[in-house]
Structures are given as C-alpha cells and as structure tokens.
Amino acid sequence: MHVIVDLCVVPLGVGVSVGEHVAACQRVIEASGLEYRMHAYGTNIEGPWDDVMAVVKACHQRVHEMGAPRITTTLKVGTRTDREQHMDDKVASVERHLQSP
Amino acid sequence: MHVIVDLCVVPLGVGVSVGEHVAACQRVIEASGLEYRMHAYGTNIEGPWDDVMAVVKACHQRVHEMGAPRITTTLKVGTRTDREQHMDDKVASVERHLQSP
Amino acid sequence: MHVIVDLCVVPLGVGVSVGEHVAACQRVIEASGLEYRMHAYGTNIEGPWDDVMAVVKACHQRVHEMGAPRITTTLKVGTRTDREQHMDDKVASVERHLQSP
Amino acid sequence: MHVIVDLCVVPLGVGVSVGEHVAACQRVIEASGLEYRMHAYGTNIEGPWDDVMAVVKACHQRVHEMGAPRITTTLKVGTRTDREQHMDDKVASVERHLQSP
C-alpha cells in the first residue's frame, strides 16, 4: 500500500524554537531514501506504508533522544487503490485545473 | 514507546455518508484489544506504538476492501518520555485545572 | 453555515505540561454558550461558523495572554449542506452501524 | 494577530477526484491577495488572522456551491507573539540547522 503523508512533529518542553528538532527529523527522512518535500508547516513524504511509518516512528525516537520529553505530531495520511499517484501528480492535477478556463 | 492517537479516517469516492466505513474501523479497533474512545470527529486510541499503528494500517486496508478507492486520514500522535500518561489522565488533568479557582 | 470542529490547541514555550492552558480554552469555549465535548486529544465544538471560529481565535488570544509565546493548533472542520447534523448524530450513526449485523 | 496556516479541504460526495475543487480553493486564496504556497497535501497561507480565516470560510462556501454536499477540512494554525515570522523564515530556519554540523 503506497502512501503520501504530511508530517508535522512538534516537540514540547524544549522552549519556543523547534528548528533544531525539525532539522533532525529532516535528517531521519533524508536517510530513509524516501521521496519528500518540506514546506513551511510540515513535510510531505511518500512510499510504501511500512517504510513511511517507520520514518515517523524514527522521528519521534530521535526527537526524544535530543531531550524533548513530549511530542505531539499531526499526520495526514493518503492512500488510494484506483491508481498510482505521487506527490508531484497531485500538484500537477491542481495546476492543470487552474490553467483550464 | 507508548502513544495516544486521535484517528479520523475519511473515505472518498463512496458518497456522502461514511458511517458504515467508520463503523468498520471501530470493529478493527475493538478487535485489537487496545483502549479507545470514540468522539464526534475521530477516535482516541492508546497503546504501544507498533500496535496502535498496526490498527491505523488495518483500518485503511479494511476501508479499501469495502470498496473505497481513496482514503485521507488525519492522525494526531502524542508520545512522552517524562512520565506515563493515559487518555483519562489527560482529561482528568484539565478537569483538575477547571475546578481550581 | 453550521460547523462541527475538533480543536486541539498546543502552546509552545511553556514547558511540558499544558493542562492549565487547555483548561483556559475550555473556559473560553464554555463562556461562548456553544455545544462542546472534550476528549483526550481535543474538543469538539459545534455551531454557526462565525461563532465557532471566534472561539478558536479567542482561545489563541487567551493562551498568548497567559504567557505562551507560540501556539500550534490542529483543527478539523466539517460542514454539510445536504442535511443538518449534530455531534451526537455522528456518534449515533456509527453506533447504529455497529449494532446491525 | 499574524497567522500561518496549513489548509487541506476535502470534499465528500463528489467522487474520487477532487482536483477541480482544490483548484477552486486556490483561486479563492489567490483572489485574497494573501501569501500562499501550495504543496502536495495542502496549502500554506499567511496573513492577519481574520483575513486568513475569511479565506478558509470562502473555500468551504465555494466548494459547497460547486455541488459538494459535505466537506471535511484539516487546518493547522500557528501564531506567535515573541517575534514576527513568515513561511519562508520557517523553512530557512530548518535549512540553517541542516547546514550546521
């Protein structure tokens, strides 16, 4: 089962700046070899369900190891069985509609 | 790693009523033996990370088997390492604060 | 436009315990007179769109006033035009499906 | 109160393809004059709270007008009072951390 997720990991108890923790998650995601795109409020990742979810778990583990005592994550999870669809296809589909009258 | 999640599975391409699909997810959650509480916009589930995430995957699989070609899920995921906390503890903590002046 | 939301306000920069801030939001919601139900990972609120969204804004304002320098909120927002539906109807619909064979 | 949101509008009861409805939301957002960035699982928008929330409401109204009987939206909402921060600042902050050893 192929999945596209939007991952937003929020560490609590580490102060107001969380850039360091988010960067650590980016390194975990990068190391996984999965396709991903960071945006201003999360990161889109795609791939086989188990691989993507292993990355989400590894992010929580990494951020706890860095000293964050608590984490709250918001995750959107999209699957479809009618056809294969990748992150760039979703953006392209909307842009196609935007260009038609 | 103990986790408390809030799971909201939304099937697309099955019409406007999704109660049947949500009920199927409830049966998957119930069968897992994990603690859970349904509310009007999702279901809280808690337990070991891998068990809870296996249930989320099983919900997607079940809803696809029922004929939904596409699913978008919103999942909140909470972990903490400073102390053990259960769903009822979170509600009780807020209620304690509400009762103090 | 009637709306049912699921609101989860997360203050950052105030330490690991956020029960006091969540309780303050509950007081803001209670004072609004809108229907609501708290659960372990947020609060369902329903009513006219503008009234519910005014409460969400008032929660951010209140939590900032309490000293939280940063807030990240996750909000699910449901509207429908085919029929009137309330929070308890959603739960009842799922329970009806659970009781049929 | 300045806000950065991540908006993901999901129409139900319109079939499996929602690109047309998402494109209509993009037009609503574009017409608002607010800063925004689309990604594969939503759109980041920033600006004054009331302006951004008016756009979210206008998206629901527009998608209902197009015939969708039901909508479920997931919205992340970030505010901070300690300093001004824009979408590009958040991405730049993470990238700075990624470049340091």
UniProtKB/TrEMBL annotation, chains A, B, C, D:
InterPro entries referenced in this protein's UniProt entry, alphabetically:
MTH1187/YkoF-like, Thiamine_BP, UPF0045_domain
Occurrences of domain Thiamine-binding protein (ranges):
5-95
> What residue spans carry the region label Disordered?
79-101
This protein's superkingdom? Answer: Bacteria
A GO CC term assigned to this protein in UniProt: cytosol
Q: Which Pfam families match?
A: Thiamine_BP (PF01910)
SUPFAM superfamilies cross-referenced by the UniProt entry: MTH1187/YkoF-like
Q: Which PANTHER family match?
A: UPF0045 PROTEIN ECM15 (PTHR33777:SF1)
Entry's family note: Belongs to the UPF0045 family.
Q: This chain belongs to which protein, by name?
A: Thiamine-binding protein domain-containing protein
